[in-house]
Amino acid sequence: MIKYIMRKIIYKGIDPKTQDALIKLLKPYWTLYFICYQFLTIYIMLPIIPMLIISFFGGKNLEVSNLADILITAFLIIHIIASAVFAQVFKDAYQNFIFSLWKRSYFLLCTKKGKAISKKDFKTIKEVNSKQFEYIETQKCSGLCYGTCFEILKALKKGRMVFIAAKWLQCSKEKTNEGKYFTAHVLYINNGWAFDAFSVRQYKAEDLYEIYEAKIYKSFDYESIKDKSYDEFKKDELLDFEKWCAENDCTVYFRGD
Fold first, then answer.
1. Which among 16, 99, 203, 219 could bridge 160 via Cys, Cβ 3.0 to 4.6 Å?
2. Using CA atoms, how far apart are residues 60 and 62, in angstroms rounded to an integer?
3. Nearest Cα residue to 22 out of 191, 152, 105, 142
4. What is d(CA 19, CA 87) in angstroms, rounded to the nearest whole number?
5. Helix, strand, or coil (residue 24)
6. Which of 218, 216, 239, 236 is nearest to 227 (CA)?
7. Which pLDDT tens digits describe the chain residue by residue (257 residues)?
8. Spatial contact of 135 and 141, defined as CB atoms under 8 Å apart
9. Is 75 left (phi over 0), alpha (psi -120 to 50) or beta?
């Protein structure tokens, strides 16, 4: 179902091969989105099961059965009306709750699952760089792969960040990539696993390379960046990386991340 929605609605008009890659990267993201935004519906329907059980077991006695049906109907009507009123009166608070539930669920169930960044590592990132941790926890780091991977490497002092040319995964048919097949991307690699700041998830490195059809430019370990700020690192590496990208059908943008 989620795959169908992604192909026919969310990424409609995008070529099937690109849709395949986006599904591999973002299916859990959209799955949790739809589950969380159906929270009110689930909440409204939840009492039906025990009410039906009561009705079923009361069916042996006609009076009990009729009374159970009346009580069930009255309860469900009150429950539905109260839920609808609550959702309308506290609309902003409700939307914020659902949004937070979605983001928090994704972090706990998806982002933290993997071997590139362990649970202990996430605690270290939070202690060393709370702002960067908050960006990862709330998926704000998506699209900010350079700075994100740099700060993760700085905080953990292990692993490496790998600069690659990744297949351009346009999220709408209107977007272009200056006619080039690849766009520059950075991954954090550790223990044979990769953290991807685009999908904010962890994968086996070889699987992620395959999804992105990656061309590897260069990797950097902690020793190569420990004495540099992010701006200093960009200044030292930008020209060579831009040249490599130009030679490999790849766009590159160093934003203010």
1. 219
2. 6
3. 142
4. 35
5. helix
6. 236
7. 788 888 888 888 888 999 999 999 999 999 998 888 776 566 555 555 565 555 555 555 545 556 656 666 666 666 667 666 666 666 677 678 888 889 999 999 999 999 999 999 999 999 999 999 999 999 999 989 999 999 999 999 999 999 999 999 876 555 667 788 999 999 999 999 999 999 999 999 999 999 999 999 999 999 999 999 999 998 888 889 999 999 999 998 875 55
8. yes
9. alpha
Residue 242, classed as helix, strand or coil, is helix
Say which residue the tokens 């690192």 belong to: 233
- What stretches of the chain adopt beta strand conformation (E)? 160-167, 182-190, 193-196, 201-204, 215-221, 250-251
User: Which residue has 């009306």 as its token pair?
Assistant: 81
* Distance of alpha carbon 90 from alpha carbon 244, whole angstroms: 53
- Write the CA distances from 151 to 64, 111, 198, integer angstroms: 66, 17, 15
Instruction: Report the run of H or E that residue 185 belongs to, with start and end.
Output: strand 182-190
- How far apart (Å, rounded) are the C-alpha atoms in residues 207 and 195? 12
Please, which contacts does 60-63 make with residues 24 or more away whose CB atoms are closer than 8 Å?
none
Q: How many residues does the chain have?
A: 257
Q: Which residue has the tokens 């990386």?
A: 241
Among all chains, which residue has been given the structure tokens 């429950």? 79
* Dihedral sign, Cα of residue 132, residue 135, residue 139, residue 142: negative
